[in-house]
UniProtKB/TrEMBL annotation:
Keywords: ATP-binding, Membrane, Nucleotide-binding, Transmembrane, Transmembrane helix
Pfam families given in the database record: ABC_tran (PF00005)
Protein name per UniProt: ABC transporter ATP-binding protein
Positions of the ABC transmembrane type-1 domain: 46-333
Record's keyword annotation contains Membrane: yes
Chain ranges passing through the membrane: 44-66, 86-106, 160-180, 186-204, 276-297
Organism: Streptomyces smyrnaeus
Length: 648
């Protein structure tokens, strides 16, 4: 389950990334973090930067003070006098320590304030971009993987900020030491670099290796996480016990974890090898440096006090370098992850639903689908072929057909979620003025549509939120939430729950309750009603309802259509479609028949007639015209056509 295709492609890209390119990428990524910090809280960012510069200066003054103390101590004269003369330099050292502590505290307070804001800014930008991606783009596995990979870097921004602060701190300290060392003797500076380089090389190499590995195994990690999630999910609890699915899942987890452990072992071995090589080179370099210092001291090129300061500075700098290498290693790892998030955000923007477009006619009266074909990305056959459909306000339009015939795909085309591969979808106004969906303002399209998909989400939220989320672009209106719940016949149930509308409709939370499948479907119906849109697309809205609830639900849809809404009903319950104003029959992505129930039943050997009679036979009803079949709203709803007329 490794990310095979993308793995090869991605490995190449990362492997080609040379040290210089990575060194160039680091400031860019730190720039992303700093920009996010500046936009979120400029005062806190300015505080952190000032504190860091101050810390660099105190480090330099500290070394100057050490040099002052040592020069006095190594000068000629009685010990008491030398100590006396060293007092001002010692006082400066003490002052520098107090200053360092104060600046450190200030930096900690400011970066603590800044970090969560930076994380929020980067996360919000990423998640906003991801939720605006065209549905069809999310169907492409390589896009989906890149978008998914971006998720791991959202908190990297926070860690990068804290690491950048530490790195800046250490770098400023090292630069200060370097300046002081260079001013003592020019040859001391290259020594510092020679010690640092091998460790820097080792750190970058390890970080790259880990990152490449993480990218290869991204699908694997997702699968392992999903397996574990099933084990604790309440809705899977029954099957896990009754079908012994738990042991199967655990076995799968163990096998997959075993593979990951092998990879971890490989990484650990490679890292140990790199560390050894880097440590050996660094050790040899340190030996050479101290040898050179010895030579400078013995050949008289360096006074003994300066030699002492150099040893203090080099020891401090070597300590700082070791910490710098560790910090840069972490920083680099975080940078690669943040880079993934930035790339995912940019990719999402490239595949985003356009934000501009022509406004729809006001009011929209109909949607006309003309000669529309649609093929899902990666599919070899089209799911829709040259489809012509008209959906009018004030009517119930039914889509029927065998499994996989294209009904849900057509509903998504009607709702503007998918754009046709060929053909047009026109949104039409009262005087026949029209806008094609590709040119339309899609936000306007989405505002005009209420949608209940077959697999609508059961949000782990309160009952009220589960309905109000049907119109996430409007502030919650409890009166309308209750009205929508009443329209879906679920208000009584919710009000009877121990915490009423505030009950969390998911077991396992405090105030959590469990709803049945049919009750959930009513909540889903209420949600699409709350949308209050002129076009309502409902895909199998009654599949989990009992017979009475089902009949009532269809009657309510009829009433809704009579009030001027266009209802598009997808169902396999053909008794319900019998009263639809117009029925389209799909077969392998084509519309093979359309008309009223009576017209379709009058076509001997027709697909609709065959399906209807097959269902009727289950009830022992045999009429070939379906006259014996009680349509759910026959006789109960007013004659809507007479009452409302056909608007178009
Ligand atoms: N996301 C997708 N990616 C690729 N192919 C898809 C996708 N969704 C559906 N299909 C294919 O498109 C065809 C039509 O599917 P669709 O879901 O529209 O059928 P349907 O008529 O709604 O079926 P059902 O009655 O079973 O709900 C099927 O062959 C299906 O496999």
């Amino acid at each position: 389950m490794r990310w095979d295709d993308a793995f090869v492609e991605h490995e190449g890209a990362v492997a080609r990334l040379r040290f210089a390119q990575m060194a160039a990428a680091l400031p860019r990524m730190v720039g992303v973090v700093l920009r996010a910090g500046w936009n979120a809280d400029p005062r806190a960012l300015a505080g952190v930067v000032t504190a860091q510069i101050g810390l660099g200066l105190t480090a330099a003054y500290g070394l100057v003070a050490v040099n002052g103390v040592l020069s006095k101590l190594f000068a000629n004269g009685p010990a008491a006098d030398k100590l006396q003369q060293a007092i001002p330099a010692l006082a400066m050292l003490a002052l520098v320590s107090v200053g360092t502590a104060l600046l450190q505290a200030w930096s900690t307070a400011m970066s603590g304030r800044l970090e969560p804001q930076v994380e929020r800014a980067v996360s919000t930008r990423y998640y906003r971009a991801v939720t605006q991606v065209e549905v069809v783009a999310t169907e492409q596995p390589e896009i989906q993987r890149h978008l998914e990979a971006g998720r791991f870097g959202t908190d990297s921004a926070r860690r990068m900020l804290s690491l950048s602060v530490s790195v800046a701190n250490v770098v400023i300290g090292i630069v200060a030491s370097a300046v002081v060392l260079a001013s003592l003797h020019w040859a001391l500076l290259p020594m510092l670099l020679v010690i640092a380089l091998p460790k820097g090389w080792g750190a970058v190499r390890s970080a790259r290796r880990e990152h490449i590995s993480r990218r290869h195994w991204i699908d694997h990690r997702r699968a392992v996480a999903t397996l574990l999630q099933y084990l604790t999910l309440p809705h899977a609890a029954g099957e896990i016990r009754a079908h012994s699915a738990g042991s199967l899942l655990l076995r799968g987890y163990e096998e997959m974890s075993g593979l990951m452990e092998t990879e971890q072992r490989r990484l650990a071995r490679a890292q140990a090898h790199t560390d050894l090589v880097a440590g050996a080179f660094s050790g040899v370099a340190a030996l050479g440096c101290y040898g050179m210092l010895w030579w400078l001291l013995t050949s008289g090129g360096l006074p003994i006090a300066v030699g002492g300061t150099a040893v203090v500075a080099m020891r401090a700098s070597t300590g700082r370098l070791t910490s710098l290498v560790q910090q840069i290693n972490l920083l680099y790892e975080e940078m690669l992850q943040l880079n993934d998030t930035e790339e995912a955000t940019a990719l999402a923007a490239r595949h985003a639903i356009p934000r501009t477009g022509k406004p729809l006619p006001s009011p929209v009266r109909a949607i006309r689908v003309r000669d529309v074909s649609f093929t899902y990305p990666g599919a070899t056959v089209p799911s829709l072929r040259s489809v012509d459909v008209s959906v009018r306000r004030g009517e119930v339009t039914a889509l029927v057909g065998a499994n996989g015939s294209g009904k849900s795909t057509l509903a998504k085309i009607l709702g503007g979620l998918l754009l046709p591969s060929d053909g047009q979808v026109w949104w039409e106004g009262p005087a026949g003025e029209r806008v094609e969906v590709r040119e339309a303002d899609r936000a306007d399209v989405f505002r005009s549509v209420g949608l209940l998909t077959q697999d609508f989400p059961n949000w782990q939220m309160t009952a009220a939120a589960n309905i109000a989320i049907g119109a996430g672009d409007r502030p919650r209106d409890m009166a309308r939430v209750k009205e929508a719940a009443r329209a879906a016949d679920v208000d009584g149930l919710i009000e009877g729950l121990p915490h009423g509308w505030d009950s969390i409709v998911f077991k396992g939370y405090e105030r959590g309750v469990q709803l049945s499948g049919g009750q959930w479907q009513k909540v889903g119906n209420a949600r699409s009603r709350y949308r209050d849109a002129p076009f309502l697309l409902v895909d199998e809205p009654t599949s989990a309802l009992d017979p009475h609830a089902e009949i009532e639900a269809f009657e309510r849809l009829r009433t809704l259509a009579d009030s001027g809404v266009a209802v598009v009903l997808i169902t396999h319950r053909l008794a319900a479609t019998a009263s639809a104003d117009h029925i389209y029959v799909l077969d392998h992505g084509r519309i093979t028949e359309d008309g009223t129930h009576e017209q379709l039943m009058a076509r001997p050997g027709g697909l609709y007639q065959g399906m209807f009679e097959a269902q009727a036979a289950q009830y022992g009803l045999t009429s070939s015209r379906g006259a014996d079949i009680p349509a759910p709203w026959r006789g109960t709803a007013p004659d809507h056509k007479e009452e409302t007329g056909r608007p178009l």
